[in-house]
Design brief:
By secondary structure, this protein is an alpha/beta fold. It has helices at residues 10-19, 24-42, 50-69, 113-120, 163-170, 187-193, 227-237, 281-296, 312-327, 345-356, 359-372, 378-398, 424-429, 435-440, 469-482; strands at residues 45-48, 82-86, 124-129, 177-180, 196-199, 220-224, 267-271, 300-304, 404-408, 444-451, 457-463. The protein has one domain (10-308, 392-487): Alpha-Beta Complex (Amidase signature (AS) enzymes), CATH 3.90.1300. 55% of the residues are buried. Bound molecules: glutamine (GLN). The site of glutamine (GLN) has 13 residues, from loops.
Length: 493
């Protein structure tokens, strides 16, 4: 049973807390109960901190009581809101395993900037969610702690790599969860689990405290059930951070979404390269129906072309592993993480990394090291960078004539556990529609637009030009005002 408290939206929860309809402790207990009930079925979390969450909930209640007594209303925006954080992102005093054995006992001494901003706004972190090891994967199956299961069908994957966060929001274990997206890891699990997820513009949200995978592609974002909720959290997380030199000092627009609006004049482009042979027909149909709904709302729809789309997959699978192979060199067991007690230094490195990393991570390190090695650098990494520029230009060209691009998130709905684990290429192919967006650095917002014939959620992604997240939120909000896909709850029989 879903407690009525866990079925409220973030906005409804905060309004009720302010009104004193229930306490932060009651809200937290409702979510902790839900987690306790469903965690054995879903395995959405790697670590949970219920006692710490309740202590913080009591402190938040005290602040509400004092404010009410003094007639004050200037409380932090998210005071008392339960929040989950992907286990690739640091929270001080909590474990950060990155889904890897190599960091099994690593407790972070600091909190990621974007999470700290949410905490400063009153959010309470309940736990760290499951992820593919170092975010390398599209199904959460490469986690060293076992997979997460899709709440709509537990024989299927929730997507990945932020599968734990997406499943936790879909199952109402938390109203909001933080994820990261290097090549689709927010949008694809959002699509597989029927929730809303924003991958911001590269440089919009600080990556300080997000464990590096592909540094030129990594971004942090949030999952909720609706675009209005995500817009609220995004607004708090976004903005320049002196601790991340890649964040841009661009004003964060105020995106308060409460009044229904239409989309009169919004120019929506549908790229023909995203409706290729092999796409599941239900996925193509649901996305086209959603585009029709945008048209009903006043959008002007046109066909567009992103001609270099097919190169995104090979380009990404050179650049991301190349950057990963450099980033993962720091797990040398000297300062933190697993250490195999070997006398010889090189033997210690070899044993620790050999035992600490799983097969997918080793594969990426080998691919990346190869692509960067002398004699191959120009042919692989250098070439990939050039093609990346062409992909970026496709988007720049498209955004001269449209405001928003609408396309599928993934070629299929959630696949079965184990379906692709023996075939890395088949797993990589799941990312064809999400990778180009990270290569171009533009924002993407995924949200549910219906179900396939097995009653599995289908998602759409709306893409915008750099720093135009507000247009995406507004379009999704308008869509969610006249549809109810985002209100469907998995039955979890
Ligand atoms: N599936 C992609 C990969 O394995 C993307 C993962 C991500 O966005 N972190 O690299």
């Amino acid at each position: 049973m879903t407690s009525p408290l866990t079925s409220l939206t973030v906005t409804e929860m905060l309004a009720a807390l302010r009104a004193g309809d229930f306490s932060c402790r009651e809200l937290m207990m409702a979510h902790l109960d839900r987690i306790q009930e469903l965690e054995p079925k879903l395995h959405a979390f790697i670590s949970l901190y219920p006692e710490r969450a309740l202590v913080e909930a009591d402190a938040a209640d005290a602040r509400y009581i004092t404010a009410r007594k003094n007639g004050r209303s200037d409380l932090p925006a998210l005071l008392g809101l339960p929040l989950a954080v992907k286990d690739l992102i640091t929270v001080a005093g909590m474990r950060c395993t990155c889904g890897s054995k190599i960091l099994e006992n690593f407790v972070s001494p600091f909190t990621a900037t974007a999470v700290q901003r949410l905490i400063d706004a009153g959010a309470i972190v309940v736990g760290k969610t499951n992820t593919d090891e170092f975010a390398m994967g599209s199904s959460t199956e490469s986690s060293a702690y076992g997979p997460t299961f899709n709440p709509w069908d537990t024989s299927r994957v929730p997507g990945g790599s932020s599968g734990g966060s997406a499943a936790a929001v879909a199952a109402r274990m938390v109203p909001a969860a933080i994820g990261s997206d290097t090549g689709g890891s927010i949008r694809q699990p959002a699509s597989f689990c029927g929730v809303t997820g924003i991958k911001p513009t590269y440089g919009r949200i600080s990556r300080y405290g997000l464990v590096a995978y592909g540094s030129s592609l990594d971004s942090m974002g949030v999952f909720n059930r609706t675009a209005a909720e995500s817009a609220l959290l995004f607004g708090i997380m976004a903005g320049h951070d002196p601790l991340d030199a890649t964040t841009m000092d661009v004003p964060v627009p105020d995106i308060s979404l409460s009044e229904p609006h239409d989309l009169k004049g919004l120019r929506v482009g549908v790229p023909r390269e995203y409706f290729i042979k092999g796409i599941q027909p239900d996925v193509a149909d649901r996305v086209k129906e959603a585009v029709e709904t945008l048209r009903l709302l006043g959008a002007v729809v046109s066909d567009i072309s992103l001609p270099h789309t097919e190169y995104a997959l090979p380009v990404y699978y050179l650049i991301a592993p190349a950057e990963a192979s450099a980033n993962l060199a720091r797990y040398d067991s000297v300062r933190f993480g697993l250490r195999e007690p070997e006398e010889q230094l090189w033997e210690m490195f070899r044993q620790t990394r050999g035992k600490g990393f799983g097969p997918e991570v080793k594969r990426r390190i080998m691919l990346g090291t190869y692509a960067l090695s002398a004699g191959y650098y120009d042919a692989y990494y250098g070439q990939a960078q050039k093609v990346r520029t062409l992909i970026k230009r496709d988007f720049e060209e498209a955004f001269k004539s449209v405001d928003v691009i609408a396309c599928p998130v993934a070629p299929s709905t959630a696949f079965k556990l184990g379906e692709h684990t023996g075939d890395p290429l088949a797993m990589y192919l799941e990312d064809v529609f999400t990778l180009p967006i990270n290569l171009a650095g533009v924002p993407g917002l995924a949200f549910p637009v219906g179900f396939d014939r097995n009653h599995l959620p289908v998602g759409i992604q709306l893409l915008g030009s750099h720093f135009k997240e507000d247009i995406l939120f507004k379009a999704a909000f308008a869509y969610q005002q006249i549809t109810s896909w985002h209100q469907e709850i998995p039955t979890l029989h």
